[in-house]
Amino acid sequence: MHVAIAGNIGAGKTTLTKLLAKHYKWSPHYESVDENPYLDDFYGAMERWSFNLQVYFLNSRFRQILEIREGGKNIIQDRTIYEDAHIFAPNLHAMGLMPNRDFQNYSSLFKLMERLVSPPDLLIYLRANIPTLVGQIHKRGRDYENSISIDYLSRLNERYEAWISTYDKGNLLIIDVDNLDFVDKPEDLGSVIDKIDAQIHGLF
Hints:
Elements: E1 2-7, H1 13-24, E2 27-29, H2 39-44, H3 46-71, E3 75-78, H4 81-94, H5 100-114, E4 122-127, H6 130-140, H7 150-165, E5 171-176, H8 186-203
Parallel strand pairs: 1-3, 1-4, 2-3, 4-5
Helix pairs in contact: 3-4, 3-5, 4-5, 4-7
């Protein structure tokens, strides 16, 4: 089984991935943030590094999906390949931070990959408002995220909502995380697990 968690920067994807992997004994696949050679440069000069960054993420995510397919394990994945293509790259293009030819090249590459990609059995979308996202970003204190603007997060949130409203590739569970604390409140994590259990039982 393949479960994936989607959501904006700071929504709590990595935290929930860790907690669910532990609870269900699933094998976690994380977004390669620490090893990413472009992130620092990107947040310092988005227009210069947007294409490089998005191709790196696309490559990394596609490799993950191939490993998931070949591994035969129960997997939980932190962020999906669809978010790169439907949210982050189009947003950079719309903001004038990715030139037309780069965006067209990127989109063509994604469409090619998508033909070889199976969607997750269950997609969990973490919905969060801007104050929640900002609070979480500041809390984790990654230097390269200090320059993320409210406008950038707002644009991403709008695209997430538009994408989720038309998502039809498989089972979808939407969790509003504004008033949840997975880490310090076991009852909050328990309520999320109950919802996931209901979804999983419906798959079989």
